[in-house]
């Protein structure tokens, strides 16, 4: 653990001893004042400055004010007793000061530990373990959980982490199933008490983390059910109504009407299939079970194919890809899903007569695709919000919100080593920048 007294206080103590005692010697030879000076140095700087003051003060007093003058010879036993008294007072007072400072530092550390867990943060458990490692200058700190057949590391900071309690220089029990394992130095009895408080707070932080994860899982499940009710119902109802109309024997439809009903059913089922595919991809992405087969592919092949999937509206989109644009290293199927979702979203928000455009640019070892629309745009403060799954919850129609598509697009792009970031469109609107690694053979 770091010293209880700060370096600044120790330096001040040495300075006080080195400057104050000669000044005091020039003024008086009163032994009680020299003793008071030793106490003052001990209160300021602790043990080592106090010992310097005790020995230095005694030597100055003996040299300038005790016969025989101007010699360091100790003439009587009383002088030896005075030296011993100086040293004893210095040690006693500095010990009290060091003890008080150490207890104050311990109390401050414990308050920070408790406050850190209460304040939360992105990862309070990781922050707690880092604080423990830094406080005691350890190599690593590992929180182990007892599982059938052995131990499982729940969290760790530093290298090398411990795989079992036997791997550390010290271990402290957090609760019936959790143990903190420390590597780097053994613990004194006083330090063990502080680490025990760290261990208890680590157990609390782990429980909070798991409760938050469970709550987030419930939130996602609730959102999924709401999304199913909100987004699946409309195309399903449209397709069902179109089919019911075609099967009806009460109304005689002309050829044009039958073609419109079939087109409605076909479009609704396409929307339904796309939404189900998004839901399945998102579930695989969150479960870490998304299969990928990345390869070097040319955007001049994959982008037009994705636009064709969007139907007639996709064919109105302006596409500008330079002839020397490098290939990208990505999974063709996943990249198609990213482009269909991002461009489809841009189409939904583009005003009539101003379809979005797609441009490509090489930037070092990355390739950028910009999907530019001139719709109403989104305030910068809301940019990250549109990438949250199911953020359309609460919408009353199918023409607002961005649903699941952008959340899935960002997740798929990041899985391929890329990203999806929003930007303002000059003149109004939103630009989605899809960045992917350039192909290795480009």
TrEMBL record:
Catalytic activity, reaction form: ATP + protein L-histidine = ADP + protein N-phospho-L-histidine
**Gene3D superfamilies, alphabetized:** 1.10.287.130, Backbone structure of the membrane domain of e. Coli histidine kinase receptor kdpd, Histidine kinase-like ATPase, C-terminal domain
Any idea where this protein resides? Answer: Cell membrane; Membrane
Q: What is its EC number?
A: 2.7.13.3
Membrane topology of this protein: Multi-pass membrane protein
Q: What is its main location?
A: membrane
Enzyme class label: transferase
The transmembrane segments are: 36-60, 72-97
- Residue ranges annotated for the Histidine kinase domain, each copy included: 227-440
Q: Which residues form the signal peptide?
A: none
Q: From the Swiss-Prot or TrEMBL record, give the protein name.
A: histidine kinase
Q: Which organism is it from?
A: Paractinoplanes durhamensis
């Amino acid at each position: 653990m770091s010293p209880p007294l700060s370096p600044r206080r120790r330096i001040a103590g040495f300075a006080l001893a080195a400057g104050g005692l000669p000044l005091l010697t020039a003024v008086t030879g009163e032994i009680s004042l020299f003793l008071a000076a030793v106490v003052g140095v001990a209160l300021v700087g602790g043990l080592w400055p106090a010992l310097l003051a005790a020995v230095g003060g005694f030597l100055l007093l003996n040299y300038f004010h005790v016969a025989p003058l101007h010699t360091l010879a100790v003439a009587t036993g009383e002088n030896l007793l005075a030296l011993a008294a100086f040293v004893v007072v210095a040690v006693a007072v500095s010990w009290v000061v060091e003890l008080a400072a150490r207890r104050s530092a311990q109390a401050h550390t414990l308050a920070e530990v408790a406050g850190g867990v209460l304040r939360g943060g992105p990862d309070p458990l990781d922050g707690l373990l880092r604080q423990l490692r830094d406080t005691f200058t350890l190599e690593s700190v590992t929180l182990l959980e007892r599982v059938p057949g052995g131990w499982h590391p729940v969290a760790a900071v530093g290298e090398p982490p411990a795989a079992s309690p036997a791997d550390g220089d010290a271990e402290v029990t957090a609760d019936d199933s959790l143990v903190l394992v420390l590597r780097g130095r053994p613990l004194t009895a006083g330090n063990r008490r502080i680490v025990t408080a760290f261990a208890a707070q680590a157990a609390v932080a782990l429980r909070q983390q798991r409760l938050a994860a469970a709550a987030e899982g419930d939130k996602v499940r609730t959102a999924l059910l709401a999304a199913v009710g909100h987004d699946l119902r409309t195309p399903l109802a449209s397709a069902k109504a179109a089919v019911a109309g075609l099967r009806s024997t009460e109304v005689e439809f002309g050829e044009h009407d039958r073609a419109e009903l079939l087109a409605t059913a076909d479009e609704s089922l396409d929307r339904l299939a796309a939404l189900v595919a998004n839901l399945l991809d998102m579930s695989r992405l969150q479960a870490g079970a998304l299969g990928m087969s990345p390869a070097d592919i040319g955007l001049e092949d994959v982008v037009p194919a994705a636009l064709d999937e969007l139907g007639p509206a996709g064919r109105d989109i302006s596409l500008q890809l330079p002839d020397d644009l490098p290939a990208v290293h990505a999974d063709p199927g996943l990249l198609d899903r990213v482009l269909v979702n991002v461009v489809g979203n841009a189409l939904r928000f583009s005003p009539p007569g101003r379809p979005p455009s797609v441009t490509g640019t090489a930037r070092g070892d990355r390739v950028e695709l910009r999907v530019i629309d001139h719709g109403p745009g989104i305030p910068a403060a809301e940019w990250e919000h549109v990438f949250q799954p199911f953020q359309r919850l609460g919408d009353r129609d199918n023409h607002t919100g961005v649903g699941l598509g952008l959340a899935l697009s960002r997740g798929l792009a990041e899985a391929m080593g890329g990203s999806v970031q929003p930007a303002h469109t000059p003149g109004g609107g939103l630009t989605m920048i899809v960045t992917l690694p350039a192909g290795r053979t480009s």
